[in-house]
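Hi F.,

I've been meaning to write this up properly since the lab meeting, where we talked about keeping a consistent format for the predictions we share between groups. The idea is simple: the sequence comes first, exactly as it goes in, then the structure tokens exactly as they come out, then a line or two of notes. No screenshots and no reformatting. I'm using this chain as the first example so we have something concrete to point to.
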Amino acid sequence: MEVVVEILVVNPNSTQSMTDKIVEAARAVASPGTVIHGATAAGAPASIEGHYDEAMSLPGLMARVREAEAKGIDGIVVACFDDPGIAACRELASGPVLGICEAAVKAASMLATSFSVVTTLPRSVPVIEHLIHGYGLSHQCRRVRSAAIPVLALEEPGSNARIKVRDEILCAIREDRCEAVVLGCAGMADLTAWLSEETGIPVIDGVSVATRMIEALVGAGLKTSKINAYAFPNEK
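Output, unedited:
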């Protein structure tokens, strides 16, 4: 089969099992002929839960993006809901780069007049609120909610993390009167179909949406602008 698009899906944390889950979610929605490459940010924290973790993840993330650019990868998905280092990644890459928060909330704005976000820990709430404001969608976001679970609980067999996420979505439907829900963590990607069935509402996973958006942008022949803000970094 002819390869149409090559996409790198980068997990900015260092937990390989989460990378495997994210890559599986991307491959499940990819078009025939699209090749999904997975990568983990070596040396990064095991999970990204706050500004410090995000900062510590950036060297590994930038290294993976540089490698992808050298290999001629067509587009990149940064699979962390904090959208770490997106602007810097866009400076390094010729093709389109999408963070899963931006992809998911923009998709939600096209599917419903309102949405809520369900994330992991409470400390992630202000980070996501800031991102959504920057993406110009605060007027459609009813609330950013926390299921009060550590990111790594999503990787633990037998944990009740998925139940807590489901129950928080049900609270969002009841209390926020939202019409769609965005999953605020890449580690929730494998729960999307189950949560949609359990709650009866569109549940949006940024990994799958970003993958398909990259396919669309590449298919339309579009690349990242190299005029001014996203120009390649100056050699120093």
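Notes:
The longest strand covers residues 5-11.
The two ends are 42 Å apart (CA to CA).

If this format works for you, I'll send the rest the same way.

G.
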